[in-house]
C-alpha cells in the first residue's frame, strides 16, 4: 500500500513493536542494568554539571536568587519526570523521548525530537568536558605546583555572545583526552561503563557533601542581600534574571532523560526505569540545593562571574588552606568524568534507536557481538564531541543544551495523554501520572515554556538553523529509508 506524504509524517510505531525490535533487530542490546546502576546513570549525568560549572554562568544573571532558579528547574524537571516515568513503562525501548514520540505523535515529530536530543547530548558532552579542564588544572596546581600551558587548554574559536574570534595556535587538549577515555570505556560495553560510573557517582556525592560541610562553616547571611540581581544592564534584574538562570542550569537535568535512553539495557524496565527516574530526581534536587545554598553563603555573588574552578576557590578562601581545594578538584575531575561518560552513552543509544528505524544510516545500529556495544556509533560520536570540545568555547553551549532539553520535555509531556488514549485503560504499565493524563503534563509544558522564554535570542537563531537542517535531512533521506515506509 502506497502512503501519502501526510500519512508518512504521522505514522506511528507501536509500543509493542518498539519492544519487539529491541530483541529482534540488529543483534540487540543486552539487558544487564539493575536499579542501582541505572539510578546512578541518572545521577551521574546531572549532579556535578550544574554545580561545578553553571553557577559561574547563572549567578551573574540571578544573584543569590539562583537558588530559586534551581527550584524552578527542579520543579519543571519533576513534572516532566513523572511523564517520563509513565512513558518508560509503556515504551521500554532505547531512544527515550524519540521512542516515546514515535509511538504517539508520529514519525516526523519523532525525528525532530531526535534532532533536539542529538543537540542536547552532543553539546552537553562537549561543554562538560571543556569545564573539566579547569578543575584538572586547579588540581595540578595545588598538588604539584604545575599547570597546563594556556595554549593547550584554550579554545581556538571564542565567543563573547556577539562576536566570534579565532585564536590560532590554541587547542583545548584536556577535554579531548577525557572523551578518549570515555570512548574506551563505552566500547567495552554498558555493564562495565555503568559499574565504573556508579563508583564515580558515589565519590562525587561524598565530595559535594564535603564541600557543603566546609562551606557552611564560612556561611554569611549578608551574601544573600540583595537577594535578586539589581543590575538591569543586560536585562537580568529581578525575576527575569532568575528565569534566565533557570534556563542556563536546566540542562543539568538531562540525566533523567539519560535513564530513559537505557530502556533496552535494563532488567525489568517497566518497573526499574520509572523508579530510577524518580529516585535520581530526588537525589539530584537535594544535592543541587544543598551545594548552591552553601556556595552562595560562603561567597558574594559578584565573585562568581568568570571564576575558574569556582567551588575549589571557595573552599580555599573559607579555610585559608590549599588541601580542601585539592580534595574538591580531585573529586570534580572524577565526577565530571562520569557526567561526560553517561552523556556520550545517551547520545549513542539515541542514534542506535534512530538508525534501527531506518531514519539514519545503518552504521549507527551495528552492535559488537562480544561486548554488546555499538562500537562504530560510539567512535563517531566521540570524534565529533571531541572536536567541538577541543576547538570551541563553551559560552553558547549551556543555553543550547537547555533549548534542546526543554523542547524534548514538551513533546514527552504531550505524549502522555496521547499514548493513554492509544493503549486504553487496560495496558500494562508500571507507573501512571497522578491526577489524570492532562494536569501534570499540562503543567510540565507550561513550566518548560516559562523557562524557554528568557533564553538568549542567539540561542533561538542557532536552534532554528539546526531544526532546518533536521527537516531537510528527514525529507531528503529519512522519509524514503524508514522501516515503516518499506513495510507500508
UniProtKB/TrEMBL annotation:
Keyword Calcium included in the entry's annotation: no
Membrane topology summary: Multi-pass membrane protein
Pfam families (UniProt xref): AA_permease_2 (PF13520)
Subcellular location: Membrane
Flavoprotein keyword on record: no
PANTHER family associated with the record: CATIONIC AMINO ACID TRANSPORT INTEGRAL MEMBRANE PROTEIN ROCE-RELATED, INNER MEMBRANE TRANSPORTER YGJI-RELATED
Name used for this protein in its record: APC family permease
Organism from which the protein derives: Massilia niabensis
Lineage: Bacteria, Pseudomonadati, Pseudomonadota, Betaproteobacteria, Burkholderiales
Amino acid at each position: 500500500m502506497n502512503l501519502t506524504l501526510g500519512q508518512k509524517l504521522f505514522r506511528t510505531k507501536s509500543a509493542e513493536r518498539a519492544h519487539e525490535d529491541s530483541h529482534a533487530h540488529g543483534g540487540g542490546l543486552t539487558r544487564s542494568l539493575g536499579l542501582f546502576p541505572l539510578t546512578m546513570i541518572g545521577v551521574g549525568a546531572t549532579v556535578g554539571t550544574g554545580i561545578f560549572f553553571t553557577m559561574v554562568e547563572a549567578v551573574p544573571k540571578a544573584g543569590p536568587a539562583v537558588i530559586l532558579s534551581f527550584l524552578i528547574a527542579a520543579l519543571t524537571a519533576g513534572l516532566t519526570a513523572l511523564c517520563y516515568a509513565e512513558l518508560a513503562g509503556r515504551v521500554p525501548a532505547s531512544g527515550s523521548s524519540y521512542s516515546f514520540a514515535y509511538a504517539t505523535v508520529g514519525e516526523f515529530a519523532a525525528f525532530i525530537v531526535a534532532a533536539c536530543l542529538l543537540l542536547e547530548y552532543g553539546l552537553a558532552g562537549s561543554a562538560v568536558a571543556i569545564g573539566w579542564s579547569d578543575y584538572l588544572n586547579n588540581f595540578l596546581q595545588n598538588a604539584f605546583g604545575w599547570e597546563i600551558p594556556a595554549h593547550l587548554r584554550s579554545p581556538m574559536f571564542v565567543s563573547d555572545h556577539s562576536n566570534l574570534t579565532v585564536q590560532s595556535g590554541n587547542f583545548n587538549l584536556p577535554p579531548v583526552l577525557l572523551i578518549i577515555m570515555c570512548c574506551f570505556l563505552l566500547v567495552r560495553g554498558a555493564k562495565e561503563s555503568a559499574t565504573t560510573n556508579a563508583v564515580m557517582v558515589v565519590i562525587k556525592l561524598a565530595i559535594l557533601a564535603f564541600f557543603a560541610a566546609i562551606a557552611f562553616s564560612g556561611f554569611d547571611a549578608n551574601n544573600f542581600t540583595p537577594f535578586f540581581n539589581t543590575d538591569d544592564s543586560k536585562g537580568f534584574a529581578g525575576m527575569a534574571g532568575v528565569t534566565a538562570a533557570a534556563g542556563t542550569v536546566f540542562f543539568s537535568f538531562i540525566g533523567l532523560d539519560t535513564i530513559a535512553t537505557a530502556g533496552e539495557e535494563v532488567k525489568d524496565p517497566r518497573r526499574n526505569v520509572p523508579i530510577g527516574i524518580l529516585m535520581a530526581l530526588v537525589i539530584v534536587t537535594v544535592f543541587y540545593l544543598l551545594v548552591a545554598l552553601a556556595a552562595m553563603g560562603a561567597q558574594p555573588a559578584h565573585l562568581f562571574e568568570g571564576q575558574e574552578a569556582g567551588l575549589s576557590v571557595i573552599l580555599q578562601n573559607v579555610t585559608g588552606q590549599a588541601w580542601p581545594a585539592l580534595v574538591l578538584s580531585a573529586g570534580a575531575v572524577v565526577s565530571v568524568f562520569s557526567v561526560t561518560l553517561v552523556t556520550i552513552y545517551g547520545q549513542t543509544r539515541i542514534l542506535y534507536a534512530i538508525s534501527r528505524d531506518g531514519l539514519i544510516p545503518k552504521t549507527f545500529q551495528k552492535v559488537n557481538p562480544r561486548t554488546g556495544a555499538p562500537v562504530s556509533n560510539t567512535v563517531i560520536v566521540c570524534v565529533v564531541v571531541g572536536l567541538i570540545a577541543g576547538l570551541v568555547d563553551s559560552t553558547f553551549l549551556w543555553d543550547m543544551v537547555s533549548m534542546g532539553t526543554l523542547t524534548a520535555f514538551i513533546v514527552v509531556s504531550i505524549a502522555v495523554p496521547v499514548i493513554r488514549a492509544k493503549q486504553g485503560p487496560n495496558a500494562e504499565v508500571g507507573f501512571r501520572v497522578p491526577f489524570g493524563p492532562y494536569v501534570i503534563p499540562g503543567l510540565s509544558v507550561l513550566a518548560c515554556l516559562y523557562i524557554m522564554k528568557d533564553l538568549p535570542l542567539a540561542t533561538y537563531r542557532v536552534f532554528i538553523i539546526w531544526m532546518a537542517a533536521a527537516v531537510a535531512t528527514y525529507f531528503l533521506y529519512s522519509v524514503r529509508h524508514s522501516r515503516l515506509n518499506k513495510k507500508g
